[in-house]
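Problem: given the chain below (419 residues), write out its structure.
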Amino acid sequence: MTSTKDNISRKLLNPFKGDRAIWFIFLVLAITSLVSVFSSIGYSAAISGKTPEQVFLRHLLFVVTTFVVVILLSNFNYRRFSSLSWFGYLLSLGLLVAVLVVGHKSNDAGSGMSRWLQLPLIGRFQPSELAKIVIVVYLARLLTQEKNNLKEWTTFRNILIPVFILVVLVVSENLSTALIVFFVCFAMIRLTPINVNHWRLTILGLIVVGALALFIGNKLDIPFLARSETWSSRIDKWMNVDPTERSQESMTRMAVASGKFFGVGIGSTIQARLMTQANNDLIYAIIIEETGMFGGILVFLLYFFLYVRCINIALRCKGDFGRMTVIGLGTLIFLQAAIHMGVSVGALPVTGQTLPLISSGGTAYMCMGLALGIIQSVAYDVNVNEAKEKRAKVAAQTTATAPADSIQEKENEKEEVKI
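Solution.
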């Protein structure tokens, strides 16, 4: 009884379940987020009609809330996410349809498409941020349930259909998010024993359909496909940056160039005071400006080691659902971070992707916290199972050596009697 009470007390006193390295990385990213956002939020706050302190306090609230969410989820049995994922999938579809019908339009010039919903008590909510977490968990559920039938075309088709439906709905809101979701789902499916020919035909069909959709969208001016002009414009600006123009692309490159190796110093940014997206879509450029390439490399290494820890957890996980979920969510976080960094240093055109767990933005930040909490839930289960196996081995070894010890003791007693 005392032992049980002690175990319960230890669990309550240590709410940070899961992988310790991931907790440390999360803490460093959160601190980096608070410092970087506070340094770069001035212009964004001014155009929104709020003071920098008000906007920063809102971000601080989201960071603290996300910590609580990760703690709660890490104490949750991750297997229950499997049964909840179908509800999350239907909810995501409903929200994505709603944002097309009654959503608010983005402030980005030329975008002209719905981006977010105004929800009671929550405020701005981007359905695509939740959808990309949900589809990973839901796909992991489907792949686990049908793991013995994946070579059949019917099974393969039925798994792809929900992925395609969600990706199509996300495309009109954010092409880069749709591509990230598709790539992550592709990586998850390729890790399973599927028929490669089925996948090749599917990819070929998607390329043809996508090209036709873009052509028809431009010719007929269909609102659902109208952002193709914005996508081509962003690529053109990326390839032909005018250094004399005060655009996001040119200022981002100036921020990176002025940072050199050790940066201009935290809080000494110049470009952030001129950029509308300095605190979210392009915050990595401000990090490099203030801390130099040295700070930029450290931030990249944090995401890299986070991904390595996710792979380690997946390899140690005995359940297929947990393994696929961690691989999917880990790939999602790392891929989004890599794309954001590529945009910030000028290697990729502007995509609108935030830097996970650093950029400001309530929905994006909390949804990444949701992903991290699920990963930690799986990690905690792995740790518990490994601890049980270790205790079982010790007990088995003790039982195996006990008879030999007792025999030796009896022999010693006989020798003593003879003497």
